[in-house]
Amino acid sequence: MNTDMIIVFFGELGTKGKNIMDFIRLLGKNTKYALRDFKSLEFEIKKDHIYIHLNDEDFEEVSKKLKKVAGIGSFALAKAVNKDMESISMEASELYKKSNKHTFKVNTKRADKEFPIHSDEVSRKVGGYILKHNPQAKVDVHHPEISVEVYIRPEAAYVYGIKIKGLGGYPLGIAGKSLCLLSGGIDSPVAAYLMMKRGVKLECIHFAAPPYTSQAVIDKIHDLLHVLNDYQPDIKLYIVPFTNLERKIYEVAGPSYCVTIMRRMMLRIADGVAWKHNDLVLSGGESIGQVASQTLYSMQVIEEVGQHPFIRPLATYDKMDIIDIAKDIGTYDISIRPYEDCCTIFTLKDPVTHPNLDKVHEIEDSFDWKIMVHDCIHNCQVEHISVSQEEEF
Ligand code: ATP
Ligand code: MG
Questions:
Q1: Nearest bound ligand to CA 341?
Q2: What is the DSSP letter of 38?
Q3: Closest protein CA for atom 13 of ligand 1
Q4: How far is the CA of 233 from the centre of ligand 2 (A)?
Q5: Confidence band of 344 (pLDDT split at 50, 70, 90)
Q6: Residues 82, 3: contact at Cβ < 8 Å?
Q7: Atom number of ligand 1 nearest to Cα 285
Q8: Which letter does DSSP use for residue 135 in this model?
Q9: Considering every ligand atom, which ligand is closest to the CA of 331?
Q10: How far apart are CA 133 and CA 361, in angstroms?
Q11: Which of 5, 108, 243, 393 might form a disulfide with 119, Cβ 3.0–4.6 angstroms?
């Protein structure tokens, strides 16, 4: 027996109790789906790990896809060998040789307690074998250039070197569904990614105000969602026709309260859409203090109208850290394309950072916004943004 395979480690998922199999089954399903183009792969979905037999598929290509599956803590390219010291030692020595490293250590985990040799002794014996067959090899238990891992389980022993970090979090869909407010900016796609990584399936809502906002913004939203399709293969998008309400708000609220009132209306509309489509919570890319509408004072006044919990994964992030994630996941270059947002099309002088609630109520009492909010909720344009238009998850 000698097979190239991938061992998937669960990370935080492994801390789950009774319902762990629900998590693992979903992770298995999502993993298989992410790797659907690699026809020769074979999967074993077990309580502790997922094993993927490569059957000559290219590890680097498979690895690129695996890195985007939420719920995977880490994974490693491993060889399965017979459970005898000779097979294990030979494979470990081969791995060491191929690594072209100098210092090493051997680390053994014995999940099969029936295996007659204790972990430390396995490590010593395997280390001895590596030293004997590789004259340049040197043991360094504290800072080795390579750690050779031996993992002994009931069905086989596995030998591997580098563990590759996965996305972490939970399998997509396990945590339910959220409606994410997606602008064309840098922050909201990153917030969406962080939600997905945590196992939350997303639907997205975008407020468009044509002709003030152009088709270029919608194209941008589509492009951003296509990048996010790497993490969630099918994303439903609601485009809200916001022009009439926005014009009215600008007329009645004046420049300093316009954004506060607009945000409250957006929240009411998002709440309505979320009720209609069974989204459990709302989410978005706000970060404390980033702009006037994101001070704690503003958030309190805006959220007065909210009916769903509002999750802000970026609340405590600095912009530079958000940009780093955006670059990492590939949304940054799309986000910085010039665009008009419905919140920025009118030049607003001195938006309030400490809005007064009485003043806000007074402005809202001065016009009949309910019918306009109702129209926005019920006249959304609905689209499915998928990896491929024929395929739905
Ligand atoms: P981003 O925050 O995405 O970089 P931005 O900085 O231009 O874009 P802000 O004014 O900071 O947007 O808005 C804060 C949040 O409000 C956004 O992250 C997004 O969740 C939501 N939002 C703003 N504009 C829109 C819009 N036109 N449609 C949907 N959501 C929006
Ligand atoms: Mg922002």
A1: 1
A2: -
A3: 286
A4: 25
A5: low
A6: no
A7: 18
A8: T
A9: 1
A10: 80
A11: 108
Please report which confidence band the pLDDT of residue 16 belongs to, taking 50, 70 and 90 as the band edges. confident
Task: Give residues with Cβ within 8 angstroms of 69, minimum separation 6.
Answer: 27, 30, 31, 34, 166, 167, 171
Which residue's CA lies nearest to atom 23 of ligand 1?
Answer: 183
The type of residue at 244 is: N
Q: CA–CA separation, 195 vs 170, rounded Å?
A: 10
Which ligand number lies closest to the CA of residue 180? 1
* Helix boundaries (H) for the chain: 20-34, 59-66, 85-99, 119-133, 187-197, 215-228, 243-276, 296-303, 319-329, 332-335, 357-365, 369-378
Across the range 318-346, mean pLDDT stands at 88
- Tell me which amino acid residue 1 is: M
Give me the amino acid identity at 340. Answer: E
Read off φ and ψ for residue 76, nearest 5 degrees: -145, 145
**pTM value > 0.90:** yes
Determine which residue's CA is closest to atom 10 belonging to ligand 1.
343
Residue 150 CA to ligand 1 center (angstroms) comes to 49
Greatest CA separation found in the chain?
87
What mean pLDDT do residues 102-118 have?
Answer: 96
Sign of the torsion angle spanned by Cα atoms 320, 322, 324, 326: negative
Asked if 91 and 79 touch (Cβ cutoff 8 Å), the reply is yes
Token pair for 390:
């024929």
Nearest CA to ligand 1 atom 2: 187
Measure the CA–CA gap between 300 and 114, rounded to whole angstroms: 60
Comparing CA positions, the residue from 131, 141, 143 lying closest to residue 97 is 131
Q: Read out DSSP for 268-307?
A: HHHHHHHHHTT--EEE----TTSSGGGSHHHHHHHHTT--
Q: Are 90 and 48 in contact (CB under 8 A)?
A: no
